[in-house]
Design goal:
The model has no long low-confidence stretch (mean pLDDT about 95). This protein is mostly helical. Helix content is about 50%, strand content about 5%. The protein has helices spanning about 20-25, 50-70, 80-90, 105-120, 150-160, 195-200, 205-220, 225-230, 240-245, 250-265, 270-290, 315-320, 330-340, 345-360, 365-375, 380-390, 405-410, 415-420, 430-435, 440-450, 465-480, and strands spanning about 5-10, 30-40, 75-80, 95-100, 125. The radius of gyration is 24 Å and the shape is globular. It has three domains: about 5-130, HUPs (Rossmann fold), CATH 3.40.50; about 130-160 and about 205-290, Serine Threonine Protein Phosphatase 5, Tetratricopeptide repeat (Alpha Horseshoe); about 300-475, DNA Cyclobutane Dipyrimidine Photolyase, subunit A, domain 3 (Orthogonal Bundle), CATH 1.10.579. The protein binds a DNA duplex through helix 14 and helix 21.
Amino acid sequence: MPDRPVIFWFRDDLRLADNPGLAAAVASGKPVVTVFVFDDESREARPMGAACRWWLDKSLALLGERIAAKGGKLILRRGAAEAVIAQLVKETGAEAVFWNRRYGAARKIDERIKAALKTEGVAAESFNGSLLAEPFALKTGAGGDFKVFTPFWKALQASLVMPAAAPEPRALKTVTGVASDKLVDWGLHPTRPDWSGGMAEAWTPGEMGARKRLRDFLKDQIAGYAENRDRPDEDGTSRLSPYLRFGEISPHQCWRAARHAEEAGEAPARDVQKFLSEIAWRDFSYHLLYHDPQMPKLSWRRQFEEIEWRKGTKAELEAWRRGRTGYPIIDAGMRQLWTTGWMHNRVRMIVASFFAKDLLVHWRRGEEWFWDTLVDADEANNANGWQWTAGTGADAAPYFRVFNPVLQGEKFDPNGDYVRAWAPELSALPAKWIHHPWEAPAAVLAEAGVKLGETYPAPVVDHDFARKRALETYKIKSQEGAA
DNA sequence: TGAAATGTTGGGGCG
DNA sequence: ACGCCCCAACATTTC
């Protein structure tokens, strides 16, 4: 068989440019079968949340078009990856399988597949396509893994040698006769009801959308990013997270483009540095996850598993999920999430603090809600973010750091524009009262058409009370951990 | 990548 | 002029 093909297996790397595994497969000179496997059967693979399934649907359609435009075909298969890949190798007589590595729970699947391919005499070649530094590449001076971001970030910068971008394939040789599922049959797009209208309005998924977002960010938003990124009312963030989640852009592409803008004098060094450090936080999350695969489920500092977490009443949990807590900044954030599949990072911290501290419910349950509703739901970043805020993580906020939703609102949404955008029933309130309407004079509420308990809820819990409850509850476990 | 409680300081009102 | 008090403003400590 002179013309045995190779397989390139797409996973969290849905792009043609700067895709090391794909470039290597193409460079082999053999025909390349490109495949994406929708794996909702493997025990290790966490089922994708609804918002991510929506995004994946759009991304695969666009990726398929891009591949077709280059003469290839994206094969879609569903099932346990181990069986699907074995089957595809058998069908095509492929002599090698290429992919970019994963670092979370799914890496067990990849290890099994690699071993199985080897026994079949099929080459398995894996690459780094999604991290600046792979978790096993960086070690502390003592030879251990990092537990604090700043030293991690320093080590990363010191060791990073930016590789040249992997070339985008000019053409893909077709392999005919390989069956593919129809994307629509996977049912990734929601029906009955189709709740995705707000997402379609907010996002342009896909590799080309990703590149445009990066370009626009570096053109319009990078200057002042270091401060603006904290302002939900000013749209100062990059909004690259879902693209990074699905690998529609690589962190290397972000790095090169940002440095290029800096060197061209188009972007202040300080803002570029801040942006790149945020990209590095994603690396750090994977570093932590790799060294503690249980991180999405269990508190990194295990003693916090013993906290007497509340179950939370149905009413409390539902108020939080749907943005009816009575705290405007929280409700605005939760509604932005529900509508667009995304929430501003500053607001994520505020709503997470409210969940894990004020409601005192295990952070895992909040993480699960984010997992289902975020288009950028990432097993490492999501878990790390929640554990950071809950105070249970590695380089986490100390347990006694409790966000006050009123002060946070006043500080980061000073005019109340973010609240007005997502909680329109409060939009007539003056800035002075918009973050704590329950304390507004009756005349002000009447003037703004707000009836507490009717048009907008009263606070679901008193923050001052809840803060003290959280401090008492956390305190014991935190001391046990220190001993 | 907090907030609240507590402590300190210094100007001004006042007897 | 002086001591005293008040309290805002800022600093430090504590959770």
